[in-house]
């Protein structure tokens, strides 16, 4: 079954690439706006041999990784504390519901005002957007803890942190991993968006430079790289999730199927 799915996926990709080659060649779209697949592939090859491209890729991955790491740590710690400390959830509920819907791109002027085009501007946007993904999933996970298991742990004399480790964390971990997977994708989107709009070093700025200099094939090549990067991050996040939840029934059932 996996072989059939892989073959169908490859066929779909081949058809998409062929369509991208044919549409401009047939004059349905101007090549100046949408170059054929072969020209984009050639531009991508040129980019791969350019040290500036690898520097930009490293800058993007640095902002993504640092921002995601900060957001995950802060989101998990804050989520557990808010759920465990009495009355803290009620006190922070309105604040969370007020801050969470604010679009991260709305903070771009603030980021530029504070840090200009430095890495810290990218981190501000990435952390803000990714933090809520992890925090909300952690809160949901803690709420899903079985009250009977919680009371049993109390009756056996387990302290607060022992209950967090042996009762709360195993229940919340699947939710946390879902939050991390969502945050990984959001972090990449915000990192490239910040680079594109603010002009911070990275793939986003390279795309903007290619666009303003009318290097259209190079622009599309960089967009393809951004898409491939998102695909790799998503696959990697799912792999980590399966590894971390190898004991969970959802992953065991997925493997069995």
Automatic annotation (TrEMBL):
The chain crosses the membrane at residues 64-86, 172-199, 219-237. It comes from the Bacteria. It is found in: Cell membrane. Keywords: Cell membrane, Membrane, Transmembrane, Transmembrane helix, Transport. Residues 57-241 form the ABC transmembrane type-1 domain. Its main location: membrane. It is a multi-pass membrane protein. Belongs to the binding-protein-dependent transport system permease family. This is ABC transporter permease. It comes from Streptomyces coerulescens.
